[in-house]
Each structure stands twice: as structure tokens, then as C-alpha cells.
Design brief:
Length: 249
């Protein structure tokens, strides 16, 4: 356990119990920590706007926590809405299905259901990879703002430390196709012989907040016609979740 982080959380919890605010003395005395430690933690929390300091030198919870709370509430609502839809999807088409959320420049698996032909080696719960990797993550990236995509290209694609062979032009071309079709398809980006299909999910502000997708095994049975059927199903399920989230898209 990181002691400084734990103490910062204790400060927030103390302020939650005292909505009228606490001064520096009350904080370090109540928590039993050195005055200098309390002061340093408070300055960090102030800088990040997790707390505020009023004219009477009382510390109170800050506006940054409101945003975190809204995001947490959205994600909880998202899971509640998506869970039965994703479960029914897997039962219906018998393949792996996923709920993905963006975490900065990466996408994280928030929910997963295994189909009868489970691709067990990829996309486990909590997995994080860059947003250009795979259809389910690309479905999110394609519908991010232009400024976000520009930053992504600069900080991820063009950063030589990431050793990415994909060019900015190739990425932008693929994202444009996804936006046009409303669904993403990828081939062998996680494991050879697999195909991914993903579609975006929007919230009540029509901002992309997640995506759902499936992983398929390449086979002679997976015809172009069958793949188009999968694309249609995934797009419809994503739209169903988006509407339940309050989106007008």
C-alpha cells in the first residue's frame, strides 16, 4: 500500500464527513499525521481541484470529484445496460463478445462473455491495449474528436518508442472507413487467424464512451455474407445500448 496515497484518500473521506470544511490543524490532528505531510497532500489535492480552500482557510471537496463521480455513474449505468444485451448476443451468435471502455490512449475490457468458440488467448477482463489495436478499440478511436485523434497520432503512432509500424495516413484512412460504415473490422491484429468486429456506444451527450465487439475464428464457414451479418448485428446492439444511455445517434 502506498502510504501517501492512502493518506490523501483519508483526507478526502474526512472532508466527505465534514461538508462544512476542516482546517489544516483538524486534518493532521484527526488523521494523526505530521503537519508538513498533511500540508503537502493538501497542496497536491488543491492543484488537481479535488479539494478547495475557502476564505476561512477551510478545506472542502472540490469540483474534480464531481466529474469523477459522473464518469463512475456513467460506467456503472453502462454495465447495467450492456450486460444483458451482451449476454444475449453471445448466446445468440455463439462467439466471444466484449464491452470496451477508453482509458486515455488505451481501451480496457470492462465485460466479457465467452462463446462456444472462445478465443481464450486474447481480450481478458481488464486487458488494456492502444486504441488502434483491434476492431473493438478502433470503433472508439474513430469516433473521438479530431483533436484527440491528432494527439493520439503524435503521442502514440509517431512515438518511436512504441515501435508501431502503422503510419498516420494508414490509421486515418481506416478510421474514416469505420466512421462511414459505423462498424469496425480487423484481421489478425491480436492473434493470427482471428477477425474482430466492433461498434461504438454513445452517451446522452452523443459522446463515444465505449464499444462492443466480437472475436471470430477465420474458417471456410465464415463467408463474406456471414461477416456482413455479424457487422449488422453488432451495429444494432451498439445502437440499442446507446439509445438506452440517452443518445440520439
Amino acid at each position: 500500500m502506498i502510504k501517501s496515497l492512502n493518506k490523501a484518500i483519508e483526507i478526502l473521506e474526512l472532508l466527505k464527513k465534514n461538508p462544512s470544511g476542516c482546517n489544516l490543524s483538524q486534518i493532521y490532528t484527526t488523521l494523526g499525521i505530521p503537519k508538513s505531510t498533511a500540508y503537502g497532500l493538501l497542496q497536491t489535492l488543491l492543484f488537481k481541484m479535488y479539494i478547495l480552500k475557502d476564505d476561512n482557510s477551510l478545506y472542502k471537496l472540490g469540483p474534480a470529484l464531481i466529474f469523477l463521480g459522473k464518469v463512475a455513474a456513467t460506467q456503472n449505468k453502462l454495465q447495467d445496460i450492456a450486460y444483458p444485451i451482451l449476454k444475449n448476443l453471445t448466446s445468440e451468435i455463439k462467439v466471444d463478445s466484449f464491452l470496451m471502455i477508453p482509458t486515455g490512449y488505451k481501451g480496457c475490457v470492462l465485460e466479457r462473455f465467452d462463446g462456444e468458440q472462445s478465443v481464450k488467448i486474447i481480450e481478458k477482463f481488464g486487458n488494456e491495449f492502444f486504441l488502434h489495436c483491434g476492431a473493438t478499440r478502433k470503433a472508439i478511436l474513430a469516433h473521438k474528436s479530431k483533436s484527440f485523434i491528432d494527439e493520439y497520432i503524435k503521442n502514440v503512432i509517431e512515438d518511436k518508442r512504441n515501435k508501431i509500424t502503422l503510419t498516420a495516413e494508414e490509421l486515418e484512412k481506416s478510421l474514416e472507413k469505420i466512421r462511414k460504415e459505423g462498424v469496425a473490422v480487423s484481421y489478425g491484429e491480436y492473434a493470427k487467424g482471428t477477425i474482430g468486429v466492433g461498434a461504438p456506444i454513445y452517451d446522452y451527450n452523443n459522446n463515444v464512451v465505449a464499444s462492443i465487439g466480437i472475436n471470430l475464428l477465420e474458417s471456410n464457414e465464415l463467408t463474406d455474407k456471414k461477416l456482413e451479418e455479424y457487422k449488422k448485428i453488432i451495429k444494432e446492439k451498439a445502437e440499442e445500448i446507446s439509445k438506452s444511455m440517452g443518445s440520439s445517434k
